Amino acid sequence: MLWVVAVGFFMQTLDSTIVNTALPPIAKSLGESPLRMQSVIIGYSLTMAVVIPASGWLADRFGTRRVFQTAIVLFVIGSILCALANRLDMLVAARVVQGVGGAMLLPVGRLAVLRTFPQDRYLQALSFVAIPGMVGPLIGPTLGGWLTETFSWHWVFLINVPVGVIGGIATIIYMPNSKVSGIGRFDTSGYLLLALFMVAISFSLDGLAELGFEHATVLMLLIGALAMLTAYGLHATRHPEPLFSLNLFKIHTFSVGLLGNLFARIGNGGMPFLIPLVLQVCLGYSPIEAGLMMLPITFAGMLSKRLATTLIERHGYRRVLVTNTFLVGIAIASFALISPGRPIWIMLIQLALFGAVNSIQFTGMNTITLKDLGRAGASSGNSLLSMVQMLSMSLAVTSAGALLQTFRTRLGVAQELANPLPAFHATFICVGLITSASAWIFMQLTAERLATDTIGHAGEM
């Protein structure tokens, strides 16, 4: 069963990165501008953010095997539809189908492991299935570039089909269909309020860029999003079993960690979208070369995970997160120095440094968010963290795309034939400033050295 869950993790994490290096060839094939393709990523990540809160209840109600198998089927169908798309709107719709399946793979798979293995073997089992989840982002950009150049961009999606078929068959054979008896009613009202909030806030940020909304429409979407979030807060105070209890926010470390995750990731979460794009559009890299350039980020991130534990043990969460958030912001802004004549070895060092501080950031943020929840709030808190992480990924790409489009217009490079490198430079600086500004959130932590027995198990997601 561990291999079954591992396959699901691999598919979900691979697809979160494999598309990035293929965006320019996809844009050319569909007759679109490569700088207006962020909806392909947003459609996937936003759908995952919307569906994740319901995945746990669905698994409790219908059983882990049935929901996990349904997730794989939806993921495979979505992949086939992506490969068949001949218009951008068709591709985005297919990515939404993919996102529905992908949203259930990770939490339901983790839940299946929890219910199958005894507590003393849980950590070992979860570590096993997490390995393919780490391999996916590692090989995703390079594999995406190689498939695009060797075959066509369609194979970036079709590669999921054989993996999904094998995983679906294995799910029927090996995964038990564990359910929870006497499960309460799903908080449909609360779920709809949160879902509408996430969709409205994402559309409002993308409204002035790719979607071309009027300012009044964007303003109404922002007001509507804030109204939905406020309505959920009022709803959760009187509902006996809300989707996410507001009592979670009485835990100081959880509140700070969750908000820090949201705003820090809005900054650094756009980099996997921006870096392959600037390399191909402005510097003339091929898809596979752009994918290979992402490897220093991944390798440096893996090597720095142990360093994160050492730093937090020595200096405490507050000092490490505040300092490191500024370093991540500076590392992002430094990409404004990219130019065609710059030596490649300097860029490789730059990418590695960004990967190292980014990994330390993820480890620190995730651990501080979950460490004080206790057993009673662990499931709900982890689900809320997963939702916020996927929402921030969507908002990150949306914000990066909106900034890029704005600077192209303001700097006079809106014409398709003009080199948009100055717009990328300005976007990197703004994204770096957004990230650095989120350090203020981590300043609210208590300046103390906290126990770090759980550091390193929170993962990169």
What does this structure look like?
- The chain has 461 residues and is mainly α.
- 75% of the residues lie in helices and 0% in strands.
- The protein has helices spanning 2-15, 23-30, 38-62, 64-84, 88-116, 119-150, 155-158, 160-174, 188-206, 215-238, 252-268, 271-281, 287-292, 295-303, 305-333, 344-370, 374-410, 421-437, 439-442.
- Helix 1 packs antiparallel against helix 8 (160-174) and helix 3 runs antiparallel to helix 17 (374-410).
Total tally of structural domains: 3
Relative helix content: over 70%
Q: What is the multimeric organization of the chains shown? A: single chain
CATH homology superfamily name of the largest domain: MFS general substrate transporter like domains
Terminal CA distance reads 22 Å
Sheet with the most strands, sense and barrel status: none
Radius of gyration equals 21 Å
Q: Give the strand tally.
A: 0
**N-to-C series of helices and strands:** HHHHHHHHHHHHHHHHHHH
User: Might you state the CATH topology name of the largest domain?
Assistant: Growth Hormone, Chain: A
Give the overall shape, derived from the CA principal axes: globular
- CATH C-level of the largest domain: Mainly Alpha
Mean pLDDT: 85
Q: How much β-strand is present in the residues?
A: under 5%
- Could you say what the CATH architecture of the largest domain is? Up-down Bundle
Structural class: mainly alpha
Uncertain parts: 449-461
Tally of helical segments: 19
Transmembrane segments: 40-59, 66-86, 92-113, 125-147, 153-176, 188-209, 215-234, 246-267, 273-299, 320-338, 344-363, 384-404, 424-443
Organism: Pararobbsia silviterrae
Domain Major facilitator superfamily (MFS) profile: 1-450
Keywords: Cell membrane, Membrane, Transmembrane, Transmembrane helix, Transport
